[in-house]
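Fresh eyes needed here. I'd like your take on this protein's tokenised backbone:
***
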Amino acid sequence: MKVKPLISIVAFSQRLLVTCSCMLLFSVIGEARTWSSPDGAKTFEGELKSYDPESGLVSVLLANGKILKFPQDKVSAADNAFLKEQGKVDANGPAPSASVVADITEDKLLEKSDGKPADMSKPVQVFVLLGQSNMVGLGKVAGGDVSLENAVKNKSQYSYLVEEDGSWHERKDVRFVQYMQGKGMLKNEWMKVTGRTMGPEYGLGHPLGNAIEAPVMVIKSCIGNRSLGWDLLPPGSEPYEHGGKTQPGYRGTPGNPKGNGDKVEGEWYAGKQYDDDVEDAKKVLADLGKHYPEAKKYEVAGFFFWQGEKDCGNAAHAEKYEENLVRFIQQLRKDFEAPNAKFVMGTLGESKKGCGGNGEKVFDAQMAVDGKSGKYPEFKGHVATVFTNPMAQGGSGNGHYGGKAEVYMDVGEAMGKAMIELLK
């Protein structure tokens, strides 16, 4: 980034930064150019990523991988002439681009990596993992028959996770980052089995790394005991009546169901977990080089979601699950400016057609958004639901599948393969 002496690009950027969560844009990255303020006193370098003549909003990709947004009247007449020549430029197209998705057979998806770094000339393909406790991960890594260690060493499963000497394999082309509300960053490392517990990240991270010919980053941003109907309620959700009671909309509270659109200080509100999880994931992207060494650019390629246990315990939330889920998918794409990012979710392991009660309502909602169901044509080729019942080994989400690592690995592999099919 080039600036004139004694001029702070940070201050300039802060004045230019604006928020726009309603634009549907598609990816075009051009040559870097020098931009300047109207009086020419301040300059910075960046590639034009998007420009909407109607709103006047411009997005520029800076050298550090961050996106700077500003109205066109904040730059010079020469810059405006350049924008006029370009016309409407759309950003954040299909992610990842077809050129980075390999034509790979299924058996190759689960091979051990060669341990080599990724091609850093390509944008990092980012996948965000959201949900509640089972996405956080309560599968045991070591100790006992249910552990991952036992599955690998004594049952010869998931051989791509280990070296010939039995140590855990580390791949240098997939980065794993984990943030949790109230605890901050928990992991920032290359994809390798570490810690005492695990979720589906290892099962999905390795197939993604093998199929995508670009750097891959898996960001897990979630915490347990959270419902879609309250904690993860997405923006745009309005209050509604159920059982004679008014259920809060986004950023509403029981005492003020409508809210005023702002975060509620000192009190939990509808959608607070959504806000916090999205903000944590964006922290990673805002400081890309810290979380993926040497990375300069990224594309949000997809989202993974494994959740629903808590909604099954609330009739109002179960009733609204499908409506909330549709909005959740749509809003994530807006908030991450990735309208074509893919979305893969897993059902609860105990749930299946005919299981009855709130569990069946949640299950039906999860199956309805699958692009193959036909109910939501805009989700065709973009959203997939993985039926996890055959992989659950008789366990349930609330029981965390007995800590069986195999369940978490099998669900992860299935979700990873589903994502790759969407990316193709």
